[in-house]
Amino acid sequence: MIYAFDDFIPVVHETAFVHPQAAVTGNVVIGRDVYVGPGAAIRGDWGGIVIEDGCNVQENCTIHMFPGVVVTLETGAHIGHGAIVHGAHIGANTLVGMNAVIMDNVVVGSGCIVGALCFVPTDMIIPDRKVVVGNPAKIVKDVSDEMLAWKSDGTALYQQLPAAMRASWRPVEPLRDIPADRPTQSAMLKNWKDTQRTRTETR
Region labeled Disordered — which residues (predicted)? Predict the structure, then answer.
């Protein structure tokens, strides 16, 4: 659902897909090929939210701020299931893991990976290409070229998802039995452990 607030109407690029069970309110700008999943709450009521091209905001994420703040997700930012971004700035091609919490005035650099369940406290500055984990968050190492490539491949799938959703997504009644000709889904992306195992085997 898209809601006006205080005369601000969200701006959503025609190539983006915002799930009808998401709530986008007020001073929000959503760019090209952005995916917003069901249950996401993107609240531009007290301040602004800019979600640049190629980002994804997955199921049950919350993006909000204190009054007067603009939250920005730079190009290709990847916000995992259930994460909260409150008054922060997320750099380009950065991954925020599932159920992570990014607090006010945090700046996360480009190409970072913030681990699942991580708590990034107010005012923390994270340089480009760092791996951040824990509660409270700690920088533990650099993001390798391999890690960044794996993250970028995953984000690329989400960048293709809006068009796929428009082409084939629709509400239906459930089947009661499994049809004999039910197709098999192909694996589109290996998980990180499988990627490392393949790399080791090919050395």
Answer: 175-203
